[in-house]
Amino acid sequence: MAKINTNSNVYTICYAAVMVVLVAFLLAFVSSALKPAQDANVAIDKKKQILASLNVRGIAKSDVEAKYDELIQETYVLTPDGQQIEGADAFDVETKEIGEKFPIYLAKTAEGEDAYVLPLKGRGLWGGLWGYVALTLDCEKVLGAYFDHESETAGLGALIKEEKFQSQFIGRPVMADGKVALTVVKKGTSEAETQVDGVTGATLTSKGVGEMVQSGIKQYVDVVVKGIVGAISNPAGCGRHKGCQKHEGCGQHEGCQKHEGCGQHEGCQKHEGCGQHEGCQKHEGCDGCPEKAGAEAGHKCKSGNDCCKSGTCDKSGSCGKPGCDGDKACCGHR
Amino acid sequence: MSTLFSKANKEALTSPLNLNNPVVVQVLGICSALAVTAQLEPAIVMGLSVTIITAFSNLIISLIRNSIPNRIRIIVQLVVVAALVTIVSQVLKAFAYDVSVQLSVYVGLIITNCILMGRLEAFAMMNKPWPSFLDGIGNGIGYAIILIIVGFFRELLGAGTLLGLQVVPQWCYDHGYVNNGMMTMPAMSLILVGCVIWAHRAYNKDLQ
To answer: Do A75 and A205 belong together in one domain?
Structure first.
């Protein structure tokens, strides 16, 4: 065989072209052959992370699926307006989509408590962070947390992945002064229950986790409040979570206005007649009819109508105030 | 077997472990020695991955060494290394997901490890496949040893643990012992590598 001149231009170009095509085929083949196994691994890993936030840790790979199915009751995906996307599984929402979609898992912790699991995303020192926090149904207390990272420094920032760091979150209150206050601070400077110790030597990563937890949970609370009647349509759920308790009866936002005075659910019944806020004043029929005969001091009417229908409201069936044209209106007045 | 492990072949395998160590004598691959040695476990896995990749890239380059056009030989070497690293990383993702997550970007960074290019240029381009393969294994292990030594001290002194297990007993902490936070910083691994080189040269007078 004649010796080929390996230094000629033609040979060099052909060699490079053939090599590139061969390697491209090889890599494409390897990638597509291994893709199903990799995807399965990724799905199992995600389930494992969600389970870790429910304090189920260190279970074998083969048990992950069964345990996940056992503990996760239901999942919701909300739009930023708080509307539920029908038929969407929170598990299919990728981490990078959080913010456009809000996946929520209704689950049970390892201890058997009901919890909402909220996926979070944030930024650390070198790259992305993500995590899952399990909160009680009223979003008042942390039941468990799991954090992970793309490329934080091994031995420093990477320690946020360790159970030792994550277990600090268990049992912490989420709210302080009606705001989401849960965060991470420099180790040793924690002043309140809502401030979790960071990792020594990883200030920026710790800060990233704190930011992610605080703003992440706040986003969810905002979204849920916006869509309070829509997505999580269980009416009892409304009165039970922080957003509602805080605003209950204030009449200033959508969720409240809808409920104001309806008397149909817990939040309303509790406050009816307290006279301290707008929603309640409407119920306080008695104030509109000061002359009601036989009314004991401090008597509260069940509703405005009751008062006026008792017949003792006023002269000529009107409370006598301008614009009042009937029993009903009477009691709307003061 | 006698030809497989002739004196020259044995030399190719064992000299990188000591007198021709890639890290402490040739001072190659220092960057990754800084990055992955804060803990022992990533150091071990990284050493293992580099060993496999140096061995096989040496083998492949040695097999095709006579056909490689001289002017694009570095590119050819890079393509072979990059393809191998990609395959290893894909296989790890499919079959050892936890390990691949732990090594994250460092697997990809093996491509830029100078030991690989150094051995391909210096050895595989002018030797037969089998000695090249042994040379790759020897250099990979020589690199791994240094990583493991550095990782051992950094994790032990920096966090009081080894492979994640607590080894410094609690009573030491009770009596005022504190972990050396400096050890977890990348700069300390340079100083440790320096100490290893010092000890190594003090022991091998002919290197001085």
So the answer is: yes
Contact B69 A26 (CB under 8 A): no
Give per-residue pLDDT as tens, A273-324.
444 444 433 343 444 444 444 444 444 444 444 444 444 444 444 454 444 4
The pLDDT-based confidence of A143 (bands split at 50, 70, 90) is very high
Rounded to 5°, angle at Cα A265 from A264 and A267: 130
On whether both A68 and A179 belong to a single domain, the answer is yes
**Span B5-13, average pLDDT:** 81
A203 and A74 housed in the same domain: yes
Please give the residue of chain A at the shortest CA–CA distance from B93. Answer: A38
pLDDT bracket for residue B110 (50, 70, 90): confident
pTM: 0.63
Which residue, chain included where needed, has tokens 């920032």? A157
Amino acid A286: pLDDT = 40
Q: Are A91 and A217 found together in one domain?
A: yes
ipTM over 0.85? The verdict is no
pLDDT at residue B66 is higher than 50: yes
Host domain of residue B179: 21-203
Contacts of B179 (CB under 8 A, 6+ apart): B157, B158, B159, B160, B168
A212 and A289 housed in the same domain: no
Over residues A66-80, the pLDDT tens digits come to: 999 999 988 888 888
Residue B1 forms part of a structural domain: no
For residues B128 and B147, what is the distance between their CA atoms, to the nearest angstrom?
29
Please name the residue of chain B whose CA is at the shortest distance from the CA of residue A162: B164
Instruction: Decide if A189 is inside a domain.
Output: yes
Residue A259 is assigned to a structural domain of this protein: no
Look at A11 and B154 and tell me if their CB atoms are within 8 Å.
no
Same structural domain, A182 and A312: no
Percent of chain A with pLDDT over 70: 67
CA A12 to chain centre: 59
What CA–CA distance (Å, rounded) separates A311 from A306? 9
pLDDT at A19 exceeding the cut of 50: yes
Tell me the CA distances in angstroms from A310 to A12, A175, A178, one per residue in order.
105, 46, 42
For chain B, the domain total comes to 1
Q: Which range is most confident: A151-155, A158-162, B34-38? A: A158-162
Domain boundary pick from A224, A240, A260: A224
Which residue is listed with tokens 């000529």? A316
Instruction: Report the chain B residue with the minimal C-alpha distance to residue A163.
Output: B164
Residue at B118 is within a domain: yes
A239 occurs within a structural domain: no
Q: How many CB atoms lie within 10 A of CB A87?
A: 6
What is the count of residue pairs from A and B with beta carbons less than 8 Å apart? 76
- Give the residue from A32, A41, A151 with the most B CB atoms within 10 Å of its CB, the best one to mutate: A41
Surface-to-core class of residue A307, CB atoms within 10 Å of its CB (0-12 exposed, 13-18 middle, 19+ buried): buried
Domain stop point among A174, A191, A224: A224
Instruction: Provide the residue range defining the domain that includes A310.
Output: 284-293+301-334
Q: How many domains does chain A have?
A: 2
